[in-house]
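re: ur msg from earlier - yeah i can do the protoporphyrin IX containing FE complex, just paste it... oh wait u already did. ok heres what im feeding in:
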Amino acid sequence: MNLLFQIWRSSLGKKYIMALSGAGLFLFVVGHLVGNLQFFLEPAAINRYGHFLKSTPELLWPARIGLLTLIALHVLSAIRLSAENKAARPQAYGAGVAPKDASLASRTMLMSGLVIAAFILYHLLHFTVQVPEVNFAGTDFDQLYEPNSGGADVFAMIVCGFSVWYVSLFYLVAVGLLCVHLGHGVAAMFQSLGLRNHTWAPRIAIAARVAAVLIFLGYASIPVSVLLGRGREYARRIQAGVAPDKAGSGIKAVKGVQK
Ligand code: HEM
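and the outut:
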């Protein structure tokens, strides 16, 4: 415990904590994207995935607690380091003018990070807790049932959620910011961990930006495809309580079945 406290008290220790928690969060972002891309398969695929997660609380809850711990460590170490840097440099660089070699991404890391944290809060209320008042779709996502299994219809929920154009726009802006944050953060992580030298620095910077652009395109493709019409007919039928032809050959969705 004493050792952990000492690590937290030193600036270098906090940099390591920020880098390692950032690496964990990066892996989550990639894993979550891979899971979400099942949206482009038949609806049953992402629904099965959702049911699997919910039916294995022994995996889900440790993962949730781990994720929450990573977010808390990442945000707290970022805030503390930023405050310590400011205290060590009472006069702003060039009286308020940013240093030439600092990119916009690097200068806005704390701000973009806090906006991303606010987005995650909204996202949890939207899709995990399913608070009807925040989806602006006029549908209670908790009442969307898959016809065959009677379980939650994650596919229909995503379609209904992103059918609201301003919600989709908000997601696109937030994921854009997330990727600007990652583009700089991943490269900075290698530096904090002492894994970046002069030869590798430019390659790591390029790889981090390419990864950030791919992640952006992956996440953005979901709301954009819904706005272009993907899954609308399926979701309309699920909302009406009627199974789509292929998935359930006209069986009525069973409401009130345990999810
Ligand atoms: C188009 C973009 C996205 C889609 C379609 C999406 C979809 C979902 C869905 C359906 C859930 C609920 C899972 C469940 O409870 O059954 C969820 C949960 C979650 N998402 Fe996303 N997500 C997106 C973007 C993001 C991004 C960019 C982040 C992180 C920066 C993120 C972080 C999370 C977290 C932390 C949870 C809660 C996991 C849990 O504890 O169950 N999501 N997402």
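cool cool. Residues 2-90+104-248 form one domain. ping me if u need the other ligands too
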